[in-house]
Amino acid sequence: MVKLKSNDDKEFEVEEAAVIQSEMIKNMIEDGCATSVIPLPNIDSKTLIKVIEYLNKHINMGKAAETGEEDDLKEFDEQFVNMGWEELFDVIMAANYLNIHELMELCCQSAADRLKNKSVRAVREMLKITNDLTEEEEQEIINDAPWAFEGPEIDDTVN
Amino acid sequence: MNILSRLPVRTLHQLKCVSKFWNALISDPYFKMKHFKHAKNDQNSQKILITHMLQNGSKFLSYCCPLSSVQMAEDAEKLDRPLSSKPFFRVMCACDGLVVVIVSDIMDDTRPIHLLWNPSIRESIVLPAPESEKVYSTRYGFGYDSTSIDYKILRTCSVSTEILALKDSSWRKIDKHLHGVRDSLFSTSSLAFVHEA
């Protein structure tokens, strides 16, 4: 068992087989640095619980193909990313920090799917970006590729 | 960047308007390369380009359809072809989403204009005119040469063979004649430019 500690001082015990899906922790274990609790100063307990849930489910990913559990995993993944935008971003940050490739792929794809066809205004709001382009600069970008700005299905909602 | 490289080209063009940083990021060659690599490996973003001529021969239409069968019918996107003032239009060969097309005023023109077209950004450039005339048996091949980091177009007919590296401004004649490759050029999407340089 490996002990992880979130930045709000909660400890979690995870099976080694599950936790080594994180390249970062795998390296720590190999280097013998994981004997006591591993502090994760960038991850809060709420996010860490999600990540551990994913790790535990994907513990035997290689075997899933043999045992016909692939569909089950797929369903789990679909359910897993069904979370709020902010929460999803926290998980992406954690997956990036812990270097969990599959989780990163899953969450980034979900984020991309949500951004697809969103209006510029909605994207700015979702990612808390302030627009620093002048009106002329913005117009110039539109003039460069007017076809990209035409057409329907532009979604102005933020979620 | 990991998230953005999964988005379609159209969305990315719009998102350039988000902020100065996003405009710079999306326009950056490194990002473009990352986006291309991702799209190439992504089953869902594979697309097929279909062009056909209306029966009276007056109009050519181009469509872009995703290859995953679920979406096929609904998602066909009509494309404006480049240089639409010229009525005749033919796709010769394609590689990595780039298409070599010829356009002309009359059918079977021996000196058509050669264009390199990127349908996903709706942009095209005029290629230099080849030396030899285009005849019925002229075949084209198009591929990426990783030794010179450039795309090359090969054009061959029974009497001559020419090659155009996109970085160069003119076609180069190849003395050695390539017998027997004429029809096979049609079937390969990317040629291995091993012997040329």
TrEMBL record, chain A:
Gene Ontology molecular functions: cullin family protein binding
GO cellular component: cytoplasm; nucleus
Record Pfam families: Skp1, Skp1_POZ
UniProt KW Cytoplasm keyword: no
Residues annotated as domain SKP1 component POZ: 1-59
SMART domains in UniProt: Skp1 (SM00512)
Source species, domain of life: Eukaryota
Keyword Nucleus: no
Pathway(s) it belongs to: Protein modification; protein ubiquitination
Keywords: Ubl conjugation pathway
Span of domain SKP1 component dimerisation: 102-148
Single Gene Ontology BP annotation: protein ubiquitination
Role according to the record: Involved in ubiquitination and subsequent proteasomal degradation of target proteins. Together with CUL1, RBX1 and a F-box protein, it forms a SCF E3 ubiquitin ligase complex. The functional specificity of this complex depends on the type of F-box protein. In the SCF complex, it serves as an adapter that links the F-box protein to CUL1.
Record note on quaternary structure: Part of a SCF (SKP1-cullin-F-box) protein ligase complex.
Protein family: Belongs to the SKP1 family.
PANTHER family: SKP1
Protein's name according to its UniProt entry: SKP1-like protein
Organism: Capsicum annuum (Capsicum pepper)
Automatic annotation (TrEMBL), chain B:
Domain of life of the organism encoding this protein: Eukaryota
Residues covered by the F-box domain: 2-32
Residues in F-box associated beta-propeller type domain copies: 86-179
Protein name per the record: Uncharacterized protein
